[in-house]
Amino acid sequence: MEEINIRDFLSYLKHYLFALVTVVVFAVGVVAIYDTAFKKPVYQAQTTVVIAKSSDGMSDNAASLNEVNASQKLATTYSEIAKSELVLNQVISNLNLQSSAGELSKNLSVKPVDNTAILSITVKDLSAKQSAIIANEIAKVFAAEVTEIYKVENVTQLSVAVAPNNPSNNTLTRDLVLAVVIAAALVVTFAFLRFYFDDTVKDNDDIEKTFGLTVTGHILRGESRKNGRAVNELIVERSPKSIVSENVKSLRTNLQFTAVDGDLKTILVTSTNASEGKSFVSANLAISFAQADKRVLLVDCDLRKGRLHRMFDIPNTSGLSNLLAADVKKFGDYIRKTKTKNLELITCGTYPPNPSELLASKKNAKLIAILRDFYDVVIFDGAPVGGLADSVILSSLVDETLIVVREGVTSKNDLIAVRDSLNKVGAKVAGLVFNMTNRKATRYYNNYYYGDKK
Fold first, then answer.
1. Which residue spans within 100-163 are E strands per DSSP?
2. Separation in Å, CA 71 to CA 48, 131, 363
3. Pairing mode of beta strands 215-220, 154-159
4. What 8-state DSSP symbol labels residue 34?
5. What is the pLDDT of residues 289-332, one digit of tens each?
6. Which of 27, 190, 242, 306 is 20 to 30 A from 174 via CA?
7. CA 140 to CA 143: how far, in whole Å?
8. Class assignment of domain 43-159?
9. CATH architecture of 201-450
10. d(Cα 280, Cα 275) in Å, to the nearest integer?
């Protein structure tokens, strides 16, 4: 697996900030409601008992030492006696408790105090007063039973249990802290696992070093629906001063700079797979060139699922596939006017059974050569490269090829496969276009640029 870049992970983690806050608030709310409304208060009372055997004529010091040693050795035995049914049944009978010895034992803790002959008896109960009464009664019955069994003369209750003022299970603060820590840890762990095993291309990857490709442009995520309806995708035409339009214009400028000799006339736009936005980029890039007073032709070369005719609301009765099956010199019969000045379109036409063969034909190469002479810029919207030869064939016939990727969607392995396929045919790749990125706009773009003013 790849080496983890902490800075990249922290940047990735920002996408989970809302989820992090939501989960933490939910966890805190659940814990707070449970602790305050559903959690029953439990009270804990404690008493201590010291046990010592008689001296049997020994000196006072020796007797005291022997008593302590003997009591320490018997501490575990005494603890078991205090929790035995013999003692607990007697306590239940004396106090008329509505519980069994087993139930009482679950709420009882008897432990010897380290290195002493003292036993600590702790009782938990839903009633503060009752917890103290039970603890004191256990100490009393226990003393009597131990005296009877071991003939111990010196069993003394050192401290009398008193009713506690506060419940022992009032752990709201601790529980809230744990809820925050655990909830945050779960979200961060989930984000880390997704980041670690994520094979998609990121905008902050070292694209040139990793893939040998240049990032030619970024196009921010635009509004896809408005009032429940799909928004017109021709954003450069509809909203020429929006941020997305500015992104497309920057892409146009970057492309012009890649053509050192200034002879950039044919551009192929493709992607690794479907749904990465190649048709969106092709259409808006074509409009952008047209707005720069270039005579532009947009050709839908996706002979499998072409959709430019729908984007421009133009009939697809005949198009590229039909043209390639006829006389390419009569291309003018297949050209459609668009609402954009300087921009014309050839739709994909009837979906043929042999798209790769049509695009690899001599007719297609001849058509591209003819179109170069008639237009300033010709943009070809190709099919996705993944598993298809269509765009690979076209890439060897045009001046530049653009690869459209979606941040967090396009697989690195798929991108590598596309790069290798294009390199094999000697295609000139202008670079990558990151489409639908989530990067925030810079301060340069104020509210004016977000509007629909024209």
1. 108-112, 118-125, 154-159
2. 14, 27, 107
3. unpaired
4. I
5. 999 999 999 999 999 999 999 999 999 999 999 999 999 999 99
6. 190
7. 5
8. alpha beta
9. 3-Layer(aba) Sandwich (3.40)
10. 10
